Amino acid sequence: MSTVRAARLREPGPPPDPARPHRTGRHRPAGAVRALLPLLPLLAVVALAVAGPWLAPLDPGRIVAAPYETHGAGLLGTDGAGRDVWARFLAGGRPLVLIPLLATAVTTVLGTAIGVLAAYAGRRPAALVARLDTLLLALPPVLVLLVLLYGWGYHTGTLVTAVAVTGVPFVSRVARAATAQVLHAGYVDQAVALGDGPVAVMAREIVPNIVRPVLADAGTRLAVAVALTASAGFLGFGPDSPDWGAMISQNMEGVTLAPWGVAAPAAGLAVLTVSVNLGLDRLTARIAP
User: What is the reported pTM?
Assistant: First the structure.
């Protein structure tokens, strides 16, 4: 039995207030729209990043004019190689959305499983996991990224592994602390008394009741994943692809001549990071009130 259902059984709802007008279903759509307004920037950025390569007016790798041309060379001019900045901007957001989403999903699932198992197993396993988390937290994320990039090369698996190694300890600590708070709740003791096994107790009684703190932390993990993915391109790893981080690195030399080559991808990264945090905070409040 979940916390919400148990609370409903124990505590009846407050009596209706005769002085307050009754709300009908006609007002619910407007309230739902207002609640989803903070998600619009996130949805817009994600939609633009995913559909951007199909919307690009030109081939992102095609040379269309002289380097750092600002007049008569597309909407945002050209970069240091004479390629259209607007086309490269539209084509460069997809990896910064899909790869961090995958990395955050892996990090959240793995960290939550480790934290819940450690807290449920007892004091000694929890202490051991806490020490391992502390050891991994001492590693700088960019250093871990550089080591993996030099050892394995630039590909999706490397970026996901870098995000997981640096993010799992945070998720594990959050899940372990949240599990410790609900571990001895009445509904957990009741499930154990009814003969449910450890897997069933963790899956049915514990995990659903720690969703909110885990999802709240997932917003931070996603922002860090975006930063690490962009850092790989900014540091010059990977192919010469239209990546927003790589665009900033490639166009820094001519920022005074053609500022849009740096300003456009930097603004895209900023809006993506901020909208991810604000949007997931609102989504967490809606999913797990």
Answer: 0.77
